[in-house]
Amino acid sequence: EPSLDNIRLKAKFGIGAAVTNSELNGQYANTLRTHFSQITGEYEMKMAHIWKGENNYDWTAADGMVNFAATNNMDVHGHTLVWYNSFPNWFRNANYDSATFETKIKTYIETVVGRYKGKVISWDVANEIFNDDGTLRRDGCPVFRTFNDPIAFYGRCFEYAQAADPDAKLFYNDYNVVLAAGKRGAMRQMVNRFRADGYPIDGLGDQFHYMASTNRTTIRNGLTDLASTGLQIHMSELDIRINVNKDDNFVYLPSEQAKHAEAYKDFVTFFEAIPQSQKFAITTWGVSDKRTWLTSWWHPKEYPLLFDENFQKKKTYEGFLEGL
Ligand code: XIL
Known about the structure:
By secondary structure, the protein is of the alpha/beta class. The protein contains 13 helices and 11 strands. The longest helix has 19 residues, at 254-272. It starts with 6 loop residues before the first helix and ends with a helix. Bound molecules: (3S,4R)-3-hydroxy-2-oxopiperidin-4-yl beta-D-xylopyranoside (XIL). The site of (3S,4R)-3-hydroxy-2-oxopiperidin-4-yl beta-D-xylopyranoside has 6 residues, from loops.
């Protein structure tokens, strides 16, 4: 039974990877085709990369990955429409009043979601709007400083996305969701409010940038709690850090590789435990250890993914398979 040793074939939900358009060739592309069923742009669909000026959209990279997906029969998950960190400077610095701000964002959402209608099956409409304690993020967040009721603004963003592509699944995405009860509570309140006020939402993502040492019980219980919203669940940016002490002399020994594989197995097992109808996808944030955002953000010696620098399956891949 060949499907039993391939994660894409074995999984009964999406298996995604964050990709960069410029790398979509050679072994990188072959690995994606063989082991993954969907892709997400690591930056290609972020606002600052697309929206160069009010009437100036750069589609080059986003189109590239959408075309790659179409050619290879893969789905695209769009990331992300509204993220405090990716407002282009020309927009951020304009200090628009709330009505002007919203008109422009509405146009942006309609333009982007409309362009990829039927080609991007799902969107992170909003990303990282809460702090871990459940309060709204203030620092560097143009939405927070512009709106008295930011949640209602985000609700309308979900509406604009739905109007532009009624079939797209619409997600709210954040990090530390299964660890931080405060953030999860705020997300639940937002979902309840959306339901009460008639704003659409289909799913919730937890990025899952965790460590091999992250407490298993907390993750399992957090996922169960998240799934009790009844929404689709996306493990949306999975990578697992192993060099947790940022040790410059760290060596990725077989014993460390085994720990890494074990962590993947456990996380996938917990995802499998939520109701089948709510499993949207597991997306790893990258393809191989050759290039990962963690080597700049975390530590140069980091080995977070399923494939090694030569695109060979790591023991971690077996761990993922065992969890399925
Ligand atoms: C990161 C990318 O991986 C980097 O290449 C980029 O420079 C910055 O953004 N949470 C998110 C992602 O939602 O969009 C981030 O991606 C990682 C953290």
